[in-house]
Design goal:
This protein has a five-stranded antiparallel β-sheet, with helices on one face. The protein has three helices and nine strands, in the order ββββββββαβαα. It starts with 5 loop residues before the first strand and ends in a 10-residue tail after the last helix. The chain has 119 residues and is an alpha+beta fold. A hairpin with a 3-residue loop joins strand 2 (10-15) and strand 3 (19-26).
Length: 119
């Protein structure tokens, strides 16, 4: 497993009536799209190639490092490590946006959470 975090230098977060979506990119290239769904719909993640799999089972955000935990099938389908680390080279407002979106679903998506260090 590669322990080098994937770089992310652009994050877009938007919300509709049915989902929160996080788009993560680096150097203008799509790295990952995460859809956190409401009303019992299955969450999903897509990679830069457009492959879609089940969303992360857990996440942690410490400072500028986001770690997403994928099940074995999702990790293999997406070609991501099971513990996928991303380095968020973005400002504090973007970090807060990511945290707020991920915290919308603490009962399902957070099996661990460490408060972030000052950003």
């Amino acid at each position: 497993m590669d322990s080098t975090p994937l770089p992310v230098d652009r994050i877009d977060v938007w919300q509709t009536d049915s989902e929160h979506t996080l788009s993560l990119a680096a150097a203008g290239v799509h790295v990952m799209l995460i859809r956190l769904r409401y009303d019992g719909w299955e969450d999903e993640v897509s990679n830069g190639a457009g492959t879609v799999a089940a969303g992360p089972g857990a996440w942690t955000l410490i400072g500028h490092e986001l770690t997403l935990e994928f099940g074995p099938r999702a990790a293999a389908a997406l070609s991501f490590p099971r513990d996928c680390r991303l380095h968020l080279d973005v400002d504090a407002d973007a970090i807060r946006g990511v945290r707020a979106a991920l915290l919308e679903f603490p009962d399902v998506r957070v099996s661990w959470w460490t408060p972030p260090m000052a950003v």
